[in-house]
From TrEMBL:
Originating organism: Parasedimentitalea maritima
Protein name: ABC transporter permease
Main location as per UniProt: membrane
InterPro entries (UniProt xref): MetI-like, MetI-like_sf
Upper lineage: Bacteria, Pseudomonadati, Pseudomonadota, Alphaproteobacteria, Rhodobacterales
Entry keywords, A to Z: Cell membrane, Membrane, Transmembrane, Transmembrane helix, Transport
Transmembrane segments: 34-52, 92-110, 122-144, 150-169, 202-226, 246-268
Length: 281
């Protein structure tokens, strides 16, 4: 009971501190904007730890953060192998292939009204297909190794990037395009100097959405067949063994990898679209 009361006090203390920081005179500074989510995350972990210990929640229901940290430290080699198999080989390779193919297809569709009107509805249809239906088929086609996971990721990221890129390439106004024609600019000159820069915010929207889709797709695909390594494989086998601390350790790895991946893409976007209103402070 004491730990439960302490958890309530920690939560109230964290809430009060964050409220003071968020509503204070320095709320707009970068330091405070970074400190607020850190305090919230630390408070959440502390409350989690205290409630699990205070209420004596079984390990098979919800492990404490200390149990997850112990499993993380004891299985670093396995977690690293799973990271390489799922993220680097499956998610990252499929992401690069799918996004590159989508960008090239968007350029082709931009030059053909027939393809644009014909493929975009098909793209919306394929994007709506559930991954639990397409993943087993692709696993059977490409085998149980990382190639099938990359194929699933390609399918998942292709159409979000394609739709956003096509929309971005049509963002420029008719007056802007006419101005380029008056300068005798060719299609590619107009593309690289006008239309591509205007499309970059749309393209990066698709790329950022696809960062999370890629990792989720690779992990889910491993549930339908994989070698004895990978995040999805480890999660499914650990659940069968009631080793929930290992499951949560894999979830931590996936969350860190996905967050860093998204952050890298966001940093590249900020460096290339510094002129866009969304990047201004």
């Amino acid at each position: 009971m004491i730990l439960v009361i302490l958890a309530v006090l920690v939560w109230c203390g964290g809430w009060w501190l964050n409220s003071r920081l968020a509503n204070g005179s320095h709320a707009a500074t970068r330091e405070v904007q970074l400190l607020v989510p850190v305090i919230f995350g630390f408070t959440l972990v502390m409350v989690w730890q205290l409630l699990v210990r205070g209420l004596m929640v079984p390990l098979v229901i919800l492990p404490a953060p200390t149990d997850i940290a112990s499993a993380f430290g004891a299985n670093l080699s396995k977690l690293w192998e799973d990271f390489l198999q799922t993220f680097v080989k499956g998610a990252l390779s499929g992401y690069v292939i799918g996004c590159s193919a989508a960008f090239l297809m968007a350029i082709v569709m931009d030059r053909s009204d027939f393809l644009r009107r014909g493929l975009l509805p098909v793209g919306n249809f394929v994007a709506a297909l559930p991954i639990v239906g397409t993943a087993p088929i692709l696993v059977m086609w490409f085998g149980f190794d990382w190639h099938s996971k990359a194929a699933v990721v390609v399918v998942m990221v292709f159409f979000p990037v394609l739709v956003n890129t096509v929309a971005g390439l049509r963002e420029t106004s008719a007056m802007q395009r006419d101005l380029m024609q008056t300068y005798a600019a060719s299609y590619w000159q107009s593309f690289f100097k006008l239309r591509l820069p205007a499309a970059l915010p749309f393209i990066f929207n698709g790329l950022k959405i696809s960062t999370t889709l890629a990792l989720v797709g690779a992990i889910v695909a491993e549930f339908f067949g994989s070698p004895t390594v990978g995040m999805g494989f480890r999660i499914s086998t650990s659940v069968g063994q009631l080793a929930l601390d290992m499951v949560w350790a894999e979830i931590v790895v996936a969350a860190l990898a996905g967050s860093l991946f998204y952050g890298v893409v966001a940093m590249v976007e900020k460096s290339l679209t510094f002129w866009h209103p969304s990047q201004r402070r």
